Amino acid sequence: MLTVTDLACARGGQVVLERVSFTVVAGTALVLRGPNGVGKTTLLRVLAGLQPALAGSYEYPTDQSAYASHADGVKSTLTVAENLGFWAAVYRQDLTEQVYAAFNLGALRDRMAGTLSAGQKRRLGLARLAVIDRKVLFLDEPTVSLDAASVQLFRAFLDRHLNAGGVAVLATHIDLGLAAPALDLSRFQAVPTADEAFL
Amino acid sequence: MIALLIRDLRLALRAGGGFGLGLSFFLIVVVLVPFGVGAEAAVLARIAPGILWVAALLAALLSLDRIFALDFEDGALPLLATAPVPLEAVALVKALAHWLTTGLPLVVAAPALGVLLQMESGAYGTLIGSLALGTPALSLIGAFGAALTVGVRRGGLLLSLLVLPLYIPTLIFGAEAVRRGAAGLDAGTPLLLLAGITLGCLAALPIATALVLRINLR
Fold first, then answer.
1. A46 — pLDDT class (breaks 50, 70, 90)
2. Is A49 exposed, middle or buried (0-12, 13-18, 19+ CB in 10 A)?
3. Mean of the per-residue pLDDT values for chain A?
4. Which of B17, B73, B78 lies nearest to residue A50, judging by beta carbons?
5. What count of other Cβ atoms lies within 10 Å of the Cβ of residue B94?
6. Strands A29-33 and A167-171, sheet pairing
7. Of A184, A192, B23, B114, which cross-links A196 as Cys (Cβ 3.0–4.6 Å)?
8. In A, which residues are within 8 Å of B69 by CB distance?
9. Is B36 part of the contact surface with chain A (CB cutoff 8 Å)?
10. What is the pLDDT of residues B32-48, one digit of tens each?
11. Are B7 and A75 an interchain contact pair (Cβ–Cβ within 8 Å)?
């Protein structure tokens, strides 16, 4: 469902990754690994269409991708229900009870998002993914500031998503216990050429 | 798109949203002017069109950096950019929300403040007309400036420097229309030019704003 061929991407004008190629078939996830700064976020942003690739190509069904980073765009002066309702309207989806149940937000729906704890806010950010119901997910550190119980909720969401034929590419440092292959990006790290070193 | 407009209006009206910031600045400037230049009716009546327009322009400038900066800081902007809505429409709706929360209150409040400045009675029509025609251009140009400086922390100074020169034609024709109205002359030409500026901005700037946003989101 997602095919990446010889992709090269840059951050801040510096090439960080070269010749990245992988395929993710429907119903599976791919975990990106590698030390800080290796280019996990950059790769996810390129795939999500936020920045252009330097070279190579990627392919997935159009209008089926969603991107989520640790900054999840939660508006602190809107309530939980208003935050989710906004994304539901933008993606022309219905905001169902299952979403609240899946992320344990039912009791919080009329609270201002600004009064939520960091973990609750994160759950709200992730609940957006359930609302918009996209097949190809690009997730950058989705489990930051989640406690063990919330990680399980997220894990359950991801399992349902994959069982429904979706795919996900995640950058994460913790072990979610997913039966997903890991891709170590250090293999694709760009080697600065002699010319670049002198620039 | 309507959802985005409703969200932005809601955010502006809630605590810390900045609704009323421009309006209260406008009020303060206009109320202070008679204290500064003296309460002589002839002097006030002569400078009223210029003061009202300069104050309206600065009031619009005051809230520009909120248009995109808040969404950029909390990560909502990349999410909007990857959402199934054209970024051009996002830019247009953002400018519209800015106008509804800043420009429209100024249009409504300006006649009352004209009274404080002893403005000629014949000028009220052109005052309302020129502000209604001109302030949308201020919001559209402002949204473009806000998009240019969206990644810059505390980019308010840079934003003002970029946007103020672009505001000058609007200011000239707006104030000229009100001045002609006060003098009992025909204000049709400056009003038409003002409408032309606004329509030109409406046609071109959402596209330019979206382009700049895409570059700044890289």
1. very high
2. middle
3. 88
4. B78
5. 27
6. parallel
7. A192
8. none
9. no
10. 999 999 888 889 999 99
11. yes
- Counting every residue, how long is chain A? 199
CB A144 within 8 A of CB A75: no
Report helix angle B156-182 to B188-216, nearest 10. 170
**Are the Cβ atoms of B80 and A86 closer than 8 angstroms?**
no
H helical segments located in chain A: 40-48, 80-90, 97-102, 118-132, 148-163, 194-198
Per-residue pLDDT tens over the stretch B107-145: 999 999 999 888 888 889 999 999 999 999 999 999 999
The pLDDT of residue A111: 92
Of B14, B82, B85, the CB nearest to A48: B82
3-state class (DSSP) for residue A30: strand
Is the minimum CB–CB distance between B85 and chain A shorter than 8 Å?
Answer: yes
Q: How far is CA A132 from CA A64, A129, B61, B115, B155, in A?
A: 10, 5, 35, 52, 33
Its ipTM equals: 0.86
Residue A7 pairs in a beta bridge with A20
B167-191 pLDDT tens trace: 999 999 999 999 999 998 999 999 9
What residues of B are in contact with residue A129 (Cβ under 8 Å)?
none
Categorize the per-residue pLDDT at A193 as very low, low, confident or very high, splitting at 50, 70 and 90. low
